[in-house]
Batch of 3 targets.
Target 1
Amino acid sequence: MNLAVAPAAAFEPTLEAAQARLHAVSPADYARTRNHLEGRVTRLSPYLTHGFLDLAAVVRHLRDRHQLPPQHKLLQELGWRAYFQHVWRHEGERILQSRHPGPLPDEAYSRELPADLREARTGVAAIDLAVRALYRDGYLHNHARLWLASYTVHLRKVHWRAGADWMLGHLLDGDLASNHLSWQWVAGTASHKPYLFNADNVAQFAPAAWGCKGTSVDVPYELLDQRARQPQAWGPEPGEHAGVVEPVRSSHPPAQVFSVPDAAAVAGRDVWLVHPWSLGEVPAGALPVAVCDVDAHASWPWAQARWRFVVSRMQALTPLRWIGSTQALVHAMRTARSVRGWRNGHLPVAWNEVGLAAPPPAFDEPAGFCRSFSAYWSRVRVLHPSPQTEGDVS
């Protein structure tokens, strides 16, 4: 099976590449073409997830450079990212559980992805090409993510959590809040109804080779909705279909790039903490120390392409790169005069003891918890003013 979409331009793990991509964003083109697989989407997500750029600076840049009104579609989509973080802050690990019942009870779904899906040989072109693109690029257009998640949950009857965990490890932009809550939205456990797609939807937004005529998704939405509420699984398609090998995922980066924590190296120094979700600029005068917390990664293995993306940036930022448990790393940091850096939900909470700060908010954060995006967005549309801060990506 030939891929109809050429391999995406590589995500270079440099601040220059991130800023170039930001400056190339066309909000008008985004709004007009974003639903098409070949549309002008921003492709900023790996740089946002790993902290090359912070969301607040990106929002300021786009709003000020392009004079975007608060209701512009691009700002709203960035608002979804902020909303998922809002939910994560309020619900914590509960985002890893169904927020409310979906079309079927949780126990009706399998906890294992079938081999044909993992190996891109389901016989549904849009699904097989999406899986291949995921493995090849570490990235998927949002529409392809929705199709893949919908097929996995509603036709193959795989629990959304199994699909979300699998996809997270292969995405360069894999973020627990955005990824897992998006899968829940598709599954109908964080939304009012399941997200469904059919062959006509694929034909409208994808290249011809992604077409799904004559397959299990080539049916009306009414029938898809019925199938979503029935325990019977649909697929794979009859016949033999050539597949691919799933890339190996690992909980550890290349060992030779890191050393054990060395408290003496930071004793009495002002440290800036570099971690996989904070790979932006280092403030002047600070000693950058990169850490790989094995406890943070134990349950979330990554494909080697993602490890290379993160580690390459760490190598460019500092020669001090440590690997160890949360306890060992935090203990070593206590000899420093000060430790600064950005807090992140992927890090164990013990890191908050060393003085990490919350990243600057992109939108005015509601005081209370909003259970829906519409409630959240109606309360955050007034953006923060544009402070002239050092390192502003604009």
Note: The longest strand covers residues 287-293.
Target 2
Amino acid sequence: MTQVIATFYKFVSLPDCAEIREPLLSYCLSQGVKGTILLAEEGINGTIAAASRSLIDSLFAFLGSDPRLADLEYKLSRAEAPPFERMKVKLKREIVTIGIPEADPSQQVGTYVNPQDWNAIISDPEVVVIDTRNDYEVKIGSFQRAQNPQTQSFRQFPEYVRQHLNPDQHKKVAMFCTGGIRCEKASSFMLSQGFQEVYHLKGGILKYLEEVPSEESLWQGECFVFDERVAVQQGLVPGNYEMCRSCGHPLSELDKQSEKYEEGISCPDCFDTLTEEKRSRQQEKLKQGVGSRELRKQGQER
């Protein structure tokens, strides 16, 4: 059954987020909407799926009944099968975790760049282009000229900036991420550190892949997504990767040929850190039929 997928976020003051949670969850369950929505005092962040566009539109009309969320924007894509098994609405400290108060998009944020203007920005030799995503995401696709901070979680990004970038030397910086949310905090942090010209891709990679024609695209590879599609390509069509059920990282056909790959147990990314205890847990999950969907709970929080 074809599913309509919506991704969205907004940084907005929601001091009553705990009171919003139950009515929102009840509405989603009543409409058959599945996925994960994160609520925090700083805003909302989610990826959800439903059987029709009308159900998605109805959910955003429900959210929009709160004036603070009336202009909530969302990006749509499609999948041939349901990408989520259940609906979760979680309360968090941050809707995307960086762990430092200086990164506050409600106070300051970088300059948004529309997808149609992005090529010109990242082709400028004076611009430092940075992929703010984690290493396992970057390895399957990124923009030309982009630096890979080689982070394992977004919390490590500020330290990367402190060690590798200098506001006196790097005058222009352009950043991107999957849907745009990490760049909101990354750009806010960099401005707080004295960087003057900080740009970020509006709507993230997903919006770029949706709107920029393939013949003009400077994207190379595929884009990791936090649902059962695993990765998408130009035009947001499903990609060619599977998911390691142990660590949640994307697997290519070459990865699956590695001696470190064991279906449901390990892959080249996690084999060296696999303990006997975790091996036993994964084997038990396989018996119980618990698949990679359980790893999605890590996705929006990374």
Note: The two ends are 29 Å apart (CA to CA).
Target 3
Amino acid sequence: MQPSQSGRLSSQAMAFVLAGGRGSRLKELTDTRAKPAVYFGGKSRIIDFALSNALNSGIRKMAIATQYKAHSLIRHMQRGWSFFRAERNEYLDILPASQRVAENKWYLGTADAVTQNIDIVDSYGIKYVIILAGDHIYKMDYEVMLRQHAETGADVTVGCLTVPKAEATAFGVMGIDNDKRITSFLEKPADPPTIPGDDAHSLASMGIYVFNWDFLRDLLIRDSEDSNSSHDFGHDLIPDIVKNGKAMAHLFSDSCITSGLEEEPYWRDVGTIDAFWSANIDLTDFTPKLDIYDNSWPIWTYSEITPPAKFIHDEADRRGLAVSSLISGGCIVSGSEVRNSLLFTGVRTHSYSALEKVVALPYSQVHRNARLTNVVLDRGVEIPAGLVIGEDPEEDAKWFRVSEGGVVLVTKSMMDQRAAKLG
């Protein structure tokens, strides 16, 4: 049985979302937008998952710190997340790096992004702060983590993924004792510590931290005065608390939200082209690893007003059809085949074209007789008639970005450069 809203710790908490990352591993997908603003799942942006988790957990005070290429993200927040009302004691503030502290001082690290906005956090009158990364895909009830934090009297509670030991070398890894107290924090260790009683798995940091605000406030001020600090939670503050205070691990499996269809806790960092493509295409599976149809834990976002998707033509070689695919509003599949693909809002595919395992971002177009396989189309890309992508890696690499896994990323600038060279 869920506690009443008045008894929930989330009513005394705020979410501080770090959404300023460059997302450079996503290559040209982040040329015009920050990683948290990258599209995902047919309708959403990546940041919608962290914010929806907070909202669904009962948190009504949020702040989003932005920095690099923030316009697309800020516009999305204004359009999709403007329903918070101050008269209900609800707040959502967008905090760009605006040189509030010094004229030459942008956000120097994840901790500094909070330090520069201490006065704003003070104004919320909250007891707990949840620090969140704005660039991961997962469903989690933060109330469960808040309760563990309060019950254990921790200085910090760190959200942790259980990962195979061999994969833990890519993460910040927690060593813990039998009471889940963190005894060590190692960044990308060659030989990761394992979970007590389980030599095959390690605990990796999710970049989610719960603090009492008064404790964190003092810690941030001390850190800001340390010239040797990089002012980062993972590099500076968390290791210091592990050494000198009480840091506790919270297992993601304890608070992960599942609908009953997911076989295991779902968390993805879609920070590369391959990971982004794969996570989107996975949604087309008969039983996807992530259930985005779960109405009990909705993913809130900006809902554009669009007509229904439309499928036209029904001839032997010119039939508008989609199989094992997600087709968003405003799409027109005209005499073309779409298989195991995900089409965002307003995508158009024209007669005799074929799409297989394609992630097509909003308002892209595929003209007649084109064939696409294992492709990501950026927003607004037009694929000319007859073009074949995804079947000849050498030819694709002349014009487009081909990932290590063989996924082809196509952007408008790439198409423009190709058109200019071919005349």
Note: The first helix runs from residue 47 to 56.
